[in-house]
Structure formats: structure tokens, C-alpha cells
Request: fold
Amino acid sequence: MMLGWGLRGFIGGGPFGAMIPGAMVVLALGFLYPRRDWTMLAAFGAIGVGFGGEMTYGQTVGFIVKAETFWWGFLGLGLKGAIWGALAGAVIVMGFTPRTRLVACGAAAMILATWAGWKLVNEPKLIYFSNLLDRPRPEIWAGFLLAAVALSKVVGPLAQRWAWVCFVGGFIGFGVGGAIQGLGRIYTPELNLHWWKYMEFFFGLCFGWALAWAMAHSALPEADGQEDEAPSWWVEMGAAIVMAGALFGVAWNLDVRFAYMVGGSLLLVVLTRFRWLAKHVAYSVTFAAVALDLARYWSKEYQRGPAEPAYTVAVLAALGFAWMVRKWDGDPGRMLNLLMWACVGDALVKFAIHPKGISQLVNHVAAGFFVMAVAVSLMMRRRNDGLGAVTGTH
Reply:
């Protein structure tokens, strides 16, 4: 998740970018703790971690990098990270028992609670962690806090346990990670280091640790064994395209501060009836957002060429990725490698087309993405080799 969060900060951002570490961390857990339902859990993980991506925190970072407002920034980042973790933890637990009625009730509870917290606390700015004097940002953290509480109550004790553990991990990760950036920029302004990236890495590390601890110290329900027979290739791809388009459309066009939560919650309900779509929610939609982000930077931000060919290539790449997902789904290790290297490759291209050119590519390697991805792949290979030696399967 440490690598996933670093990637999210560069090639995605927002709720769709947060799906990267959400899917990756659940895949890593699935590799360590094999279960039959990891694809469904990865879908709930990607969407659930994506929810927190709707919170604004850029101006909160602006407080922590100044000595006079450091502690207010620390409190704001810590609280937002804790809420991010708690809500994601509860959503992932819901994926262990993805019954339609439970998920529908959980989705309704999240949306209503979010609306209440948004209207009662965030919109009137009763407690505000952004800058009132300079382009104040609309916050949503109180809504998400109530959503985490409401969802935990609906799902039950296991969700409450995971929410609390991830609350602590998220608070430490974002609070201390923000402090690392703030203290570095306050006391060593002459060093041009990637303080923001260090904050992201530390948050991902602590958030991932919290999820792993919760997994290792919880009595988990058994997989229900329900599996849908996948339809033909054309039907599956058509449904995946419609599903992705619907989520993008709701998140980008619905005039409400938590539009992605509305779209993502409805999508989770749909998954309980069409379980074969889970792999595309977890992986294909995540990569589609990554590919579209690269197309936008190529055509608009970096002005390297026209938009139409760039977006056409992005869509074709997403379809090719979806074909690999259909082929490899069911193997968490292989899927983690596929998603991880697809995102790292996208990041490499994005650095390479940067106006500063090859220096940005070197900078990318220095940031650690490539090295960390190699380390993850090697660790998975060593674990597979070790299991093979024990079981005599190689």
C-alpha cells in the first residue's frame, strides 16, 4: 500500500487514484491469506479506499508546513487520515458478506450520514481545516466520519473493530506523515526533497499495516462460496464498459460533494447480484482511470499532441487490461503484479513525457516506484518458492 499510495499521488489523485492502493493492499492480503472471495474483497477495497479520496487536504498541508499553524495542520491531517482509514476498513469488512440487503442498507446509511455531516458541520464550516482566507475548499470529513460510524453499526462488530484499527493507523500515517513533510520544509528549506511523497509513502505504510494487523487478529467469516458463471467475452466487456462509464459519469457530473460515494455505493450493490463484475470494478476501472489520466496529461497538461488519439489509446489500453484481468483473475499474486506494473509503467511514461524530459524519468526512479515494485515482485516470488518447497509443488 505504501507503493500504491505513492503512485496514487502521481498518476491519479482524487477517489479514482485512491483505488490503486485500495486494490493493491487487498491483493497483497489475498496473496498472504488465500481465500475464495478475494476478488470481491478487492472490489470493496478499491471502492472503499476511493471514498476517502473525495476529502480535500491540500490546504491542510499548507498549515502543517508553517511553524505558526503546524499543530492545527497536524490535527486536521491526522483526523482526515483516521476517517479515511475507518471508512475504508468498514467497507472492506462488508465485502466478506456481500449480501444484497446488507450492502444496500450499508450504502443507504453511508450516504445519509455523509449528507448529514456535510450539511451540519462541513458546509457551515463549524470546524474547518482549510484556508478561509484564500479560495476556501469545500470539506466533507465530518460527513465521512458519520458515514464510518453508521456503516460500522449496520455491518456489525467486525466492521467496528476494523474501523477502529484503521482509524488509528490512518491518524498515525497522515498525521505523522504530514509532520515529516512539515518539519522537513520548516527546518530544512534548502533541501529540495520530495517531502510530499514521503508523506504519502508513510500514510500508505501505516494504513496498510493497520489493515494487515486487523486481518491477522480477526476471526473472519468463511467465504459464502457463491460464484456466478461469467458470461461471454463480449457481454462481460460490454457490461464492464457500461459500469465504468456510469461510475465516471456519476462521479464527474453529479452535483454533490460526495458524488463518487454515491456512484461507488450503488456499484457495490450491483456487485452483490452480478459477482462476475467484481474483478473489473477492482482492477479494470482502476486502470481505466490511470490510462485516462495519462491521456489528459499528454493532450492538455503537457500539450504533447491532440486529445482524440490519446484518449483512443487510453480506451484500447484499458480494454486490453480488462482482457488480462479476465484471463488471470483468481490469482492474487499475478493480479497484484499486473496492476502494480501497469501503474508503474504508466508513471514511467508520464515522467518521460514531462516537459523536463529524461531528468524526470531519473527522478521517478529516485522516488522509489520502480525499486519498490521490483522488491514487491521479488518478495512474492520468494514466498511462492518457499510454499512450493514446503508442499512439493515445484
In short: Confidence is low (pLDDT under 50) at residues 387-394. The chain has 16 helices and no strands. Residues 2-391 form one domain.
